[in-house]
Amino acid sequence: DVQLVESGGGSVQAGGSLRLACAVSGYTYSSYCLGWFRQAPGKEREGVAAIYTGGGNTYYADSVKGRSTISQNNAINTVYLQMNNLKPEDSAMYYCASATSCHGIELVEGIRWGQGTQVTVS
Description:
Structural class: mainly beta
Radius of gyration: 13 Å
Number of helices: 0
Largest sheet: 7 strands, mixed
Mean pLDDT: 94
Order of helices and strands: EEEEEEEEEEEEE
């Protein structure tokens, strides 16, 4: 069964950085979509960034473009989200999710979710 485990969240001051990690297990093939999403209290879930692990194509929401980088380490089946120049509005629960097909940040089929990691920016 596919499992995703996030780590790396925490509390930082505005302008600081965090690197979130999503360890993925259970896929029998190396190509899939992996996205980072966030949800703040009272707000809808927002797609932040995504990567297609087969070709390395990356996609970003406008809200984080230029401040965040999604990357992968295939050797340890982990996808990272490096976030810089964090703002209070970046505060949210961050989730990673995988899918067997996707369209940019939109995950389409075979979606699995992690449990989330909290990011708080003050």
